[in-house]
Design brief:
By secondary structure, this protein is mainly α. The chain contains 15 helices and no strands.
Length: 352
């Protein structure tokens, strides 16, 4: 037993919730943003401005989501170079076979493959052959065996969202807003789920409300800890950056989640906010302003097709309130109550 512990220490393999649930997950969020999310932003800008090169860049970036996340995870686990580079293939396999649950599959499988690679790294004289082979074989093998099942589990979440769209708008607004908003912050691709389900219309509007509540909510709630950098990285980036802090103190999730439960039905019942743009925009929130831009794109398309007479002041009011004002105000107010109750303490929302 002592020899095994010494081996793990020498290889810097630390089996702990912090290493896998916090360090790896935080890094994966950055890899996701640097690929799929930034790619979607560039593609949206390209479509709106008519600059084809932006769409081309966005396509290339989005296609590398799996490899980017896997390499980011390997970096967080202090993987040596040959392991780190081999994770490119592992990330591609896990993300492709995982479908809508690709990011979750990448998280689990990249961790296992990276640790396998680290275990054999520099243990032989032909390290340049052994380490990549072991890392890739472990990762692709696990992806083949388990990634589809992980993808099916993620699809089950999508089925639940589709079931929610069949409910009355009030209840649908709550369920869809909360579920998609939570998926946005979890290591599950809410954008991919919305795209796979073709989530548009009122359900898409509720999804936008939930995503905006999480992103704007966490950006405002953590302003005292993270200042302007945190406001931008979460408000225009991703609330997934807070996942490590959520694992430390799940109560920090209460304000943004309650805010989404309020803005969701307001979006569906009061403002009739619909997402008739690209379905992937339903799961992006304020990330690069893709969610609001998608809503606007839907308005333009509806006007062009005759389905909508014109874009009204009420439309703009609803989008501004649902996407920006209400998430900020509601989360801040609920957050004050949580801080006074001792559920949230100074530093709980600090980003590394």
């Amino acid at each position: 037993m002592n020899a095994w512990k010494a081996f793990l220490k020498r290889k810097n393999i630390e089996v702990s919730p912090k290493r896998y649930g916090i360090d790896a997950m935080s890094a994966m969020a950055q890899g996701l943003f640097a690929s799929l999310l930034i790619g979607t932003i560039l593609n949206t800008l390209g479509q709106q401005t008519g600059v084809a090169y932006l769409c081309q860049m966005g396509g290339y970036a989005s296609a590398m989501a799996g490899p980017a996340m896997a390499v980011a995870i390997g970096f967080a686990l202090n993987a040596p170079p040959l392991v780190l580079f081999s994770l490119v293939a592992v990330g591609n396999a896990a993300n492709t076979l995982g479908g809508a649950g690709g990011p979750l599959a990448v998280l689990l499988i990249a961790i296992a493959a990276a640790e396998c690679g680290k275990a054999v790294s520099k243990e032989t004289k032909v390290d340049i052959l052994v380490t990549p082979c072991v890392t890739i074989a472990a990762g692709v093998g696990l992806s083949t065996a388990f990634a589809p099942a992980i993808g099916s589990a993620a699809s089950a979440v999508g089925e639940l969202i589709m079931w929610a769209t069949d409910l009355q708008p009030f209840f649908m607004g709550i369920v869809v807003s909360v579920l998609v908003g939570v998926a946005l912050t979890l290591p599950i691709s809410s954008a991919a789920i919305c795209a796979a389900l073709g989530l548009t219309g009122l359900a898409g509007g509720a999804a936008v409300a939930g995503c905006c509540a999480q992103m704007v909510g966490f950006a405002v709630l953590s302003f005292r800890e993270n200042r302007w950098g945190g406001l931008v990285s979460q408000g225009l980036g991703t609330s997934m950056l807070q996942m490590a802090n959520i694992l430390r103190n799940p109560r920090i999730w209460i304000p943004a989640t309650l805010a989404s439960a309020i803005t969701g039905p307001l979006a569906t019942c009061v403002f009739r906010l619909e997402m008739n743009g690209p379905p992937v925009s339903s799961g992006m929130g304020t990330c690069g302003m893709v969610g609001p831009i998608g809503v606007y794109t839907g308005w333009v398309n509806d006007v062009a097709s005759g389905a909508k007479a014109a874009i009204t002041a009420w439309d703009w009011t609803g989008m501004i309130l649902i996407c920006f004002v209400l998430p900020a105000v509601l989360t801040w107010v609920i957050g004050i109550a949580c801080r006074k109750a001792g559920w949230i303490k100074d530093g709980d929302l600090k980003l590394d």
